[in-house]
Each structure stands twice: as structure tokens, then as C-alpha cells.
Amino acid sequence: MFKRSDETLIEKAIHGDERAWHQLVGRYQSALYYYSLRLMGNPDDARDLLQDVLLVLCRNLAQFRGDSSFKTWLFGIANYRAMDMLRKRKPTQDLDDLPELEHEDQPSHEQQLSEQQTQLLVQQKLKNLPPEQKLVVELRFYQHFTFDEIADQLAISSNTVKSRFYSALDKLRVQLEDHDVEQSASF
């Protein structure tokens, strides 16, 4: 069975084809959820953001002009909604409140635990970044968008995206140096 293009599904969904709508949403729902989870930090807020994005998509699908890819447009909606949610709240969990991971005697397990702790620490430090920088890092590292695609989504210049990205990396580097994580975090 061949895979329908986004444009074909969009056209059919606009004209009331529920199956096309479900295929289109199904294509991006998982990526949007995990994107939301990393940005928001907890499953409840991630589901709220996902639901909000899908509601906006449902209401505004006919407004998609095709100036960029559908994925870029969709993640742009998610970016704006996430920014609104992040501005309305303050970080709720301090790094000291994170549970300590238990160490086991076997080196392979210790290495795995160390990597998990590093990931938790990096995710916690990402929460400390300004929302604009956090979004750029998320889109670049986790969603693999180019600087130009991010600029399109956020309606800013590529140079502004690069500036936010490298400024965020510098801030993360400084924060992680305090925890001797710089080498394993690969920033």
C-alpha cells in the first residue's frame, strides 16, 4: 500500500474525509506528543499541549498554504502554544528534588545509570533556559529541523535562530560544567 502525501490528506480532510484526517493526525501525533513532553516536562501538560495543537489544527487546517512543509507548519503551531504555556508557569521541580539513581556493581549498569543521570540533568538544565532558547534547542536536537526550518516556524531570521541556539548551548555548558557532565553531554 502506498503512503499518501500530506497534501492529499489535507485536501481530503478539508472536504470532510475523516479517514484522511485520522491518517494525517496519526502521522504526527507521536512526534508531537514527545516534543510536548520534553518541552513541558510532564505527561499531563504534554497531553494538554497536544490536545490544544490538534484543536488548532482542526480549526485551521484550511488555512495551510503550503509555504513550508506541513510538519514545519504543525510544529510552528506547537511552538506558539508551548510558548504560551511555558510563559504562564514557573519551573516546579528543583534539581535537588530529583531522585537519586541507585548504582550497581557491574560497570555496564553503572555506565547506563550515569548516562540516565546525565540525561536527567540535561533535561533539568533545559528547563532553566528562556522559552525562546529552549524551543530552538528542542527543534534542532530532538526534532532535527534545520536552522532555516526553525526560522520559518518561529517567523524569525536564521541568524536569530543561530544566536539563540548557540547562546543556549553556552548556558548549558556553563551549568553542566558545575556538575562535571560536559564531556558526556557532548555539547
TrEMBL record:
<keyword id="KW-0805">Transcription regulation</keyword>
<dbReference type="Pfam" id="PF04545">
    <property type="entry name" value="Sigma70_r4"/>
</dbReference>
<comment type="similarity">
    <text>Belongs to the sigma-70 factor family. ECF subfamily.</text>
</comment>
<dbReference type="InterPro" id="IPR039425">
    <property type="entry name" value="RNA_pol_sigma-70-like"/>
</dbReference>
<dbReference type="InterPro" id="IPR007627">
    <property type="entry name" value="RNA_pol_sigma70_r2"/>
</dbReference>
<keyword id="KW-0238">DNA-binding</keyword>
<dbReference type="InterPro" id="IPR013324">
    <property type="entry name" value="RNA_pol_sigma_r3/r4-like"/>
</dbReference>
<keyword id="KW-0731">Sigma factor</keyword>
<dbReference type="InterPro" id="IPR036388">
    <property type="entry name" value="WH-like_DNA-bd_sf"/>
</dbReference>
<dbReference type="InterPro" id="IPR007630">
    <property type="entry name" value="RNA_pol_sigma70_r4"/>
</dbReference>
<dbReference type="InterPro" id="IPR014284">
    <property type="entry name" value="RNA_pol_sigma-70_dom"/>
</dbReference>
<feature type="domain" description="RNA polymerase sigma-70 region 2">
    <location>
        <begin position="24"/>
        <end position="90"/>
    </location>
</feature>
<keyword id="KW-0804">Transcription</keyword>
<feature type="domain" description="RNA polymerase sigma-70 region 4">
    <location>
        <begin position="126"/>
        <end position="173"/>
    </location>
</feature>
<protein>
    <submittedName>
        <fullName>RNA polymerase sigma factor</fullName>
    </submittedName>
</protein>
<dbReference type="InterPro" id="IPR013325">
    <property type="entry name" value="RNA_pol_sigma_r2"/>
</dbReference>
<dbReference type="Pfam" id="PF04542">
    <property type="entry name" value="Sigma70_r2"/>
</dbReference>
